[in-house]
Amino acid sequence: MGAFLKLIDELKTIPKEALLVTFDVKDLYTSIPNTEGITSVRTLLTTSNMDPEQINICCKLFSIILTKNFFLFEDQFYLQIRGTAMGSNAAPPYANCYLADYENSTIYINDLFCTHAIVWKRYIDDIFCIWNGPQETLETFFEFLKTSWPGLDFTMTYDPNKVNFLDTIVIKNDQGELYRSFHKTNRSKQPPSLR
């Protein structure tokens, strides 16, 4: 979260007509198909300093976590057959790998994204974006997101002046200056007229 707050502070001013946007992937942990998820882990690990044997071990361990996850609900045992358990320690890095693979192979090469996205910051399944383009291009990009990667269900919120992202409210004034406020505390960095 600190890196996001620093980003907002450093941006200071954006184009006046830019839209503040948030995206969310609904039910991400339970939506990731196991085979595709492990493929994404393997793809990202091949860009690391790990040797092939270490990568194979990591992928085998993820496979065990994903395919041998039993849980108890109302005195009945179940085997989870898709996605990963939200409480698992492996869930956040697994979800991050899956979405990073999606971003690298699909989003970052999209023409609308390359033309209009000034900022794209993701925290697991929550995304903050600054879109410098007409509303229609954003809506077209959103349709692309919803259909480009099977199993992912995106939601989108946008506004020219204010959006909520995690515990932060990002505000843009009429001059394009960015400010932030917090949901849970009284700390803020905002213009005097908004205090």
TrEMBL record:
InterPro entries: RT_dom. PROSITE patterns: RT_POL. Residues 1-195 form the Reverse transcriptase domain. It comes from the Eukaryota. This is Reverse transcriptase domain-containing protein.
